[in-house]
């Protein structure tokens, strides 16, 4: 299966975000991608909560989600919207991944489990929990015979989630992200490869890149990793673009048979 990772520099409004993303999605489809993955925050990036909240809508009313659903129908491809920032029915905000079928219907959604609440050594701070309500369940979904495990950005640092997804049959881990530049430089590639090696899975990480309208900087370097930990491809920059990779559906099984870590783990008592 040919996949495409779309790297964006999402603007701070829905209309501009759709105009920015659609040409890259069309480029990916024209290159033969069957599954196209976009980054976290595909529909809008705005770190100012007061500016963000009035722009958010429900998932069904979101202009970017609906525009990409229409693109999936038109192009006959799967589109995994890495995440859309949307209002829940209870009035709280979700950071939600949305997997869209080639007919434009929604196959699965996943709300980000782990909130990025950190104080970085360079002085940057983030408090996602002040805006977003975390999800409470792991999600898998089938795409043309391959089972995806849906995760988002900071989830990457919690290997138990990926083990659980792999034990549930996931062979491809999606990790759309808006990684900070400082953490990306230090940890991006090594963590992506680690999650692939630990689970014998493909890891597909579409990323935000560059300096955005809301003044945040994101790392870019969208990456596809194979089940043996090999880098299948990585953009070497933070500019908008498309990364293509071809997935062998037999590769996860071969990696897990060679190193059966999922099967060999044992229960133990704590120290």
What does this entry look like structurally?
The protein is 27% helix and 28% strand. The protein has helices spanning 14-30, 49-52, 63-75, 159-167, 181-199, 251-258, 261-264; strands at residues 2-7, 35-37, 78-87, 93-100, 106-111, 117-119, 125-127, 139-143, 146-150, 172-174, 202-205, 209-211, 217-219, 223-225, 231-234, 241-246. The relative contact order is 0.16. The strands form four sheets. It has a six-stranded mixed β-sheet with strand order 5-4-3-2-1-16. The protein starts with a strand and ends in a 7-residue tail after the last helix. By secondary structure, it is α/β, with parallel strands linked by helices. It contains seven helices and 16 strands. The longest helix is centred in the last third of the chain and has 19 residues, at 181-199. The protein has a single domain (2-259), classed as Carbon-nitrogen hydrolase (Nitrilase/N-carbamoyl-D-aminoacid amidohydrolase, 4-Layer Sandwich), CATH 3.60.110. Helix 1 runs parallel beside helix 3 (63-75).
Tell me the layout of helices and strands.
Layout: E1 2-7, H1 14-30, E2 35-37, H2 49-52, H3 63-75, E3 78-87, E4 93-100, E5 106-111, E6 117-119, E7 125-127, E8 139-143, E9 146-150, H4 159-167, E10 172-174, H5 181-199, E11 202-205, E12 209-211, E13 217-219, E14 223-225, E15 231-234, E16 241-246, H6 251-258, H7 261-264
Parallel strand pairs: 1-2, 2-3, 9-10, 10-11
Antiparallel strand pairs: 1-16, 3-4, 4-5, 6-7, 8-9, 11-14, 12-13, 14-15
Helix pairs in contact: 1-3
């Amino acid at each position: 299966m040919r996949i495409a990772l779309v790297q964006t520099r999402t603007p701070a409004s829905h209309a501009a975000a759709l105009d920015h993303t659609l040409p890259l999605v069309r480029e990916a489809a024209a290159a033969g991608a069957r599954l196209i993955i976009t980054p976290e925050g595909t529909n809008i990036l705005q770190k100012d909560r007061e500016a963000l909240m009035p722009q958010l809508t429900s998932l069904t009313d979101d202009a970017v989600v609906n525009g990409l659903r229409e693109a999936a129908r038109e192009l006959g491809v799967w589109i995994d919207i890495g995440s859309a920032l949307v209002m829940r029915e209870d009035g709280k905000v979700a950071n939600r991944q949305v997997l869209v079928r080639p007919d434009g219907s929604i196959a699965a959604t996943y709300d980000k489990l782990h909130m990025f609440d950190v104080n970085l050594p360079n002085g940057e701070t983030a408090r996602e929990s002040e805006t977003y309500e975390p999800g409470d369940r792991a999600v898998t979904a089938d795409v043309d015979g391959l089972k995806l495990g849906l995760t988002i950005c900071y989830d990457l640092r919690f290997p138990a989630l990926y083990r659980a997804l792999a034990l549930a049959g996931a062979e491809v881990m999606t990790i759309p992200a808006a990684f900070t530049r400082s953490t990306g430089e230090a940890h991006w590639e090594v963590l992506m490869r680690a999650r692939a090696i630990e689970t014998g899975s493909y890891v597909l990480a579409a990323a935000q890149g560059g300096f955005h309208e809301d003044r945040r900087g994101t790392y870019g370097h969208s990456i596809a990793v194979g089940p043996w930990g090999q880098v299948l491809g990585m953009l070497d920059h933070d500019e908008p673009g498309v990364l293509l990779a071809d997935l062998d559906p037999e590769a996860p099984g071969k990696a897990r048979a060679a190193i059966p870590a999922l099967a060999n783990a044992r229960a133990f008592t704590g120290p």
